[in-house]
Each structure stands twice: as structure tokens, then as C-alpha cells.
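Researcher: Good morning. I'm working through a list of sequences from a screen, and I'd like to move beyond sequence-only analysis. For each chain I'm collecting a predicted structure so we can compare shapes side by side. This is the next one on the list. No need for commentary yet; just the structure.
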Amino acid sequence: MISNWTAGRGRTFRTLRGSSAPMTHILIALCCLIFVIGPASGLNAAYGSGDTLYAAQRAYFRHWGVVPVDLFDGPAGQALTPATALFVHGSWVHLLGNMLFLYVFGAMTEERMGRVQFTLFYVGCGYLALLGYAAAHVTSQQSLVGASGAISAVLGAFLYLFPSARVTSLLPFLFFLPMRFPAWVVLPFWAALQWVAAGRASQGPGVAYLAHVVGFGLGFLFAWVRFGRGTKVRASPAPASEGENQP
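Model: Good morning. C-alpha cells for this chain:
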């Protein structure tokens, strides 16, 4: 499913485009910078090419990513990897999909939470999402990288804070006809898809759907506890697009 969060004008447009969400833009810039200078982008000649580049990528992901078996049975320094893995991505598609999600949903969430709280929320929930995945796959030796756990938490918080925000979805089984739904319809549907996929996923390379489920639940729970039932904000939709890709 590829979704576009659409429509209107006013304050929401300025939120997504302006300086009211500096940490969202800083996080995006940081992820992009780390990717470009790392081996996965293929742009840094220092990592070589061919088999040399492939070996460098594997070593890079293993060093900075989460390897469940090492996280629980390895040295103490491995406890930092659920944080470092949030800023590492495996491919251009992986990076751009995640950053588009963060750009669209992060700005309004940051504006509502505030810069410091949003940053701590993003890193904390992302850390716990990857930790949750690792705990469910303690014997896995596969490296897990990507910001999807943290971004899923942003989606969960967005759902609680802006449930009536209009989302235009392009659904394959409806011949990709654009259909507009409120966030309380689209985002739970997305989360349900992640849950189903997590139940079918193996421990091999692929998408860490369980991290998405954990992150989404943590984000929604945090917003519910922190902001209470009387603080949800009605949002005027703004023109922006959002694409989906997971690590």
C-alpha cells in the first residue's frame, strides 16, 4: 500500500514545509548523510567495488546494526546498537521510503510534542522497537538496520493526536484508485498488515515487521498516556506525499 496524506492549506502546510519541526528535518538529514558516506550507497569509493564492497557492507551492518544473538550474548557495547541502527539504511529505496514517511508524519507530531520530547520519543521508541524484535529472535544472526521502528512509533502517535487527518490511499486491489480516509482508518489498517506479515515472517533477511508493530504500539501508548484524552488536535490536511518502505 502506498499512501499520500493530502489536501489543504494553512498552518499544517507551514508545519510540513517550514521550520516548526527542525528535529524532523535534522533526523532526515542525518540519516541521508550517514547513508551517503557509508558503503550501502555505493558512492564512497573508499569501500571499493564488487566483492570488496559487498564485504564492507556486511561488516558495516553488523557493526552498527542490531544482531540479536550478539545483543544478548555479546559484549556490553552491543547494547548501543538498537540506537545506532536507527540511522543506518540498507539501500536507496529503504532510505527514501523511510524518510518520506518521517517527513510527512513527523513534522506535525514534533510540533505537538515539542522538539526535545519528540527527539527522545523517536530514539526511545525506536530503540525499544528494535529491542523487541531482537528479543523475539534471540538466535538470529541477521543484522537489522533502519528507522522503521521509530517511524512506526511516530505513526502510532500521529494516529492518536490527529485521528481525523485525511489520508488518500492508493490500494492495489482497487486498481490504485485514490480513496480518501481519515487516519483512524488507514493507520490501523497499515498496522494490521504489519501484524499479519510479522506472523508469517521468517528469521532470514527481509522486513522486520515485528519492529513496526512494536513501534506503532509504543507510539500510540505514549501519546495516549502523555497527552490524555482531551488533547487531540484537529488537523487541516496539507499537500504532501508519503511512501512506504521498511527495512
